[in-house]
Specification:
The structure is a single chain. The strands form two sheets. Strands 3-2-1-4-5-6-7 form a seven-stranded parallel sheet, with helices on both faces. Strands 10-9-8-11-12-13 form a six-stranded parallel sheet, with helices on both faces. Helix 1 crosses helix 7 and helix 3 crosses helix 4. The protein is α/β, with parallel strands linked by helices and about 375 residues long. The termini are close together. The structure holds uridine-diphosphate-N-acetylglucosamine (UD1). Uridine-diphosphate-N-acetylglucosamine (UD1) binds next to helix 1, helix 5 and helix 11.
Length: about 375
Amino acid sequence: MGPLVFVAGARPNLMKIAPMLRELERRGARDVLLVHTGQHYDFEMSGVFFQQLGIREPDAHLQIGSGSHGEQTGRIMIGFEAFLAGLPTPPRAVVVVGDVNSTMACTLVASKRHVPVVHVEAGLRSFDRAMPEEINRLVTDAIADQLLVSEPAGMVNLAAEGVAAARVHYVGNVMIDSLVQQLPAARALGMPARHGATPGQYAVVTLHRPSNVDDPARLAELVRFLQRVAAAMPTVFPVHPRTDKQLTAHGLRGALERPGLTLTAPLGYQEFVGLMADARVVVSDSGGIQEETSYLGVPCITLRANTERPVTVERGTNVLVGDDFDAAWRVVEDVLAGRGKRGGPIDGWDGRAAERVVDLLLAPAAGGAA
Ligand code: UD1
């Protein structure tokens, strides 16, 4: 029987694969391979996550790098097909996570080679096909063999799409496993003090979605909003490379260089979690941060009109504000008045999702023990 092949490509994949690889190792599973497509390649976007999350060296690095969607997806497909073709035996399964271009590209390649695909974090839908991730999610779930779901809406969406129940399993959230595991080390770093802030008294910002940062008018509005937040409380903004390029290209970076606002390079996992865990409020357009803040009980303002993670709004701490900056400001005022959302527990977000995934991966029906 061939190996179990894990794929990671971009930053948000790394905190999802880490707990599954650790659990497989703990159970003594052999013949597990890790492929890094290289969609993200900077140390800050990739290497530091391997270090801090204890992910071993990849068995193959495809070194794809950046490009347009077509170029990047195509290069990943060519590279991953060559990797699979070079294996002495076909994999027992390919495991992909999340919704980035690497997820979809490797799913396409594996299924055309009749290799079973397991998608972890399946069933999420924003119902917004302008988002590249939504296309990736739809394509991946349409052809993956086993769909492992992280939140209740995923079960509803897959059922509505007519997916056979036998392909779908609710396992909970593997990204929360990493959070639970790394939180003590993250808190021990004393991140608020490093940025001159008091725990519980500052804001953290992240932004990278094309819909927010690639349109100069929208980006300028965002900058004005961030100035307003920073006037109300110290604000730390680790800047994603895409955002950094756009801020610089449109001459907006200077407007953010002001007292109360700290711009940093992208942070390591522990550094970011350490900062987020004690924040008064988080302002973001990320997918994963909606979930992490919900788990941590930190109010989150999501600068998007929709979310593929509705449980974070229904049960967690998330508020969607779309492009309504008055609404966003009202949330800031609520938070300052001590009326921020606190959230409650979510089924399967318990630090043990990887155990449930590995139970399925090693079950005889999925190809037997490694
Ligand atoms: C990708 C994912 C997105 C995820 C995000 C997290 C897709 C379609 N998008 O978006 O779902 O939320 O990662 O970060 O897969 N760059 C660097 N160094 C790097 C990587 C990228 O400088 O290590 C720059 C490049 O100029 C690149 C740009 O950032 O063009 C964007 O990178 P890309 O991988 O295309 O998409 P992200 O915006 O990071």
